[in-house]
Design brief:
The protein has 214 residues and is an alpha/beta fold. It contains 6 helices and 6 strands. A hairpin with a 4-residue loop joins strand 5 and strand 6 (144-155). 25% of the residues are buried. The chain binds guanosine-5'-triphosphate and magnesium ion.
């Protein structure tokens, strides 16, 4: 297994790096599609509402390294930018999040590099999501290269909150007025309440369905 950090510099290395991150994203997307198919087939239930994936733009990669105080070398990109490949899995209920996390953690061709549970421990901003940083082996013609993908798993309500907060953050270049940050944190509490309420409603529906079937 080769480490991507040994990639070298120059246009050829850049292209190889992008090829690897694209390939890694395809691998994870396929894994998620298979999970969806299997859940549908076995449980007649699909825990995933939608999936979004993207490759980070060169401008954003460079801006992130600059923010961290690193030179924009390919080596630093590979080493310090963990979200060049990113996939976001959006579910209806918080219980679905943990189901998906477990299914991913059981796949032993993936290496789990980092786990951040911002659901049990939300960020100061109010941000909630479950983050997994994984590495996927990519099989090239002459070698295997471990490549990182950031997986974010959250509910629809958490996703709604995060996308609005992201827009506001950009609008104010990270320095939103205090009342806006306060309102956002308040909204984050509403999100948690909504998620909890929707989950218990769904459990009640499932229980009623079971009684009907018996
Ligand atoms: P960066 O925040 O990406 O520099 O990396 P990090 O090492 O701090 O990782 P973290 O897990 O905190 O964040 C990774 C990603 O989660 C970010 O790039 C965002 O997509 C998302 N994220 C983290 N915090 C927030 C937040 O407060 N608001 C929103 N909207 N998204 C967040
Ligand atoms: Mg961060």
């Amino acid at each position: 297994m080769e480490a991507l950090e040994a990639i070298g510099e120059g246009p050829d290395s850049w292209n190889t790096m992008m090829l690897l991150y694209n390939a890694a994203l395809k691998e994870i997307n396929t894994k998620v599609e298979i999970l969806i198919d299997e859940f549908q087939h076995v449980h007649r239930y699909n825990p995933i509402e939608y999936v979004k994936s993207r490759i980070k733009s060169p401008e954003s990669i460079v801006a992130k390294l600059k923010r961290y105080g690193y030179e924009p070398t390919i080596h630093n990109m590979v080493q310090y930018c963990n979200d060049i490949s990113g996939i976001r899995i959006v579910c209806a209920f918080t219980s679905d999040i943990y189901r998906i996390v477990e299914s991913i953690q059981r796949q032993n061709d993936l290496r789990i590099l980092q786990v951040k549970d911002y659901i049990s421990k939300p960020k100061e901003s109010g941000y909630k999501s479950y983050h997994l940083l994984v590495s996927v082996p990519i099989f090239l013609s002459d070698r295997v290269v471990d490549t990182k993908v950031e997986i974010q798993i959250r509910t629809i309500a958490m996703d709604f909150w995060a996308s609005l907060e992201h827009k506001i953050y950009y609008k104010f270049e990270g320095k939103a007025p205090a009342y806006i940050s306060r309102d956002l944190r308040e909204c984050a509490d509403f999100v948690s309440m909504l998620d909890a309420k929707m989950l218990s409603l769904n459990e009640a529906i499932q229980a009623a369905k079971k009684v009907n079937e018996e």
